[in-house]
Amino acid sequence: MAPFAILILIALLVLLLRPDLSLLKPMLRRWGPWLIAAALLLLVATGRAHWLTAAVGAVIPFLMRLYPLLRLFLSARRFRPRSDGQRQQPPTTASLTEREAYEILGLEPGASREDIRAAHRRLIQRLHPDRGGSAYLAARINKAKALLIGKR
C-alpha cells in the first residue's frame, strides 16, 4: 500500500512539472494539490509515512551530486546561440583609469609590479567564476592588472 501511494505522489509531481501535457495541466493544477494531500494523509493514517521520509533521505545525496552539474548546465544555457545564430557574450567591461585600477586591486598609486601581481592573485582566487565569483568582477580585476602592469 505505501509504495503504491509513493508512486502516486511521484506520478502526480511529474505530471505537474511536465510542460507538454496541455490537456491534463488545468485539471492537475486544480486537483493535483488535493490528490497529493490525500496521498500524504493516507500515508500518515496507515503509519507508512516513514516510506516517504526514507525516499526523501535516499534522494538528497543524489541531488547534492547533481547540483554542480545543474549550475554548469544553467550557466551554459545563458550563453547558448540566439535565434540569429550568434552567441551571447558575457558583459563587457568599461575602460578603466589608472586610479580606478589601483582602487580595484586595493593598492596605493605607485605600487610595485610584485604588489600588483600579489593583489591580483589574492582577489582572483576569491572572485573567479570557477569558484562561484562573477565573470564581470574577474574581468575587471584582470583588466586592472593588465593596465597597471602595461604601464610599467
Strand content: under 5%
Overall residue-averaged pLDDT value: 76
Residue stretches low in confidence (pLDDT < 50, at least 5 long) are: none
Task: Please outline the major beta sheet.
Answer: none
Q: Tell me the total number of β-strands.
A: 0
Rg, alpha carbons: 26 Å
Series of H and E elements? HHHHHH
The number of helical runs is: 6
**Principal-axis shape:** elongated
What's the end-to-end separation, in Å?
76 Å
What is the chains' assembly state? single chain
In terms of structural class, how would the helical and strand content be classed?
A: mainly alpha
The helix content, as a percent range, equals over 70%
What's the number of structural domains? 2
In words, what does this structure look like?
This protein is an all-alpha fold. The chain folds into two domains: 2-66, no CATH class; 98-150, Helix Hairpins (Orthogonal Bundle), CATH 1.10.287. It is built from six helices and no strands. The radius of gyration is 26 Å and the shape is elongated.
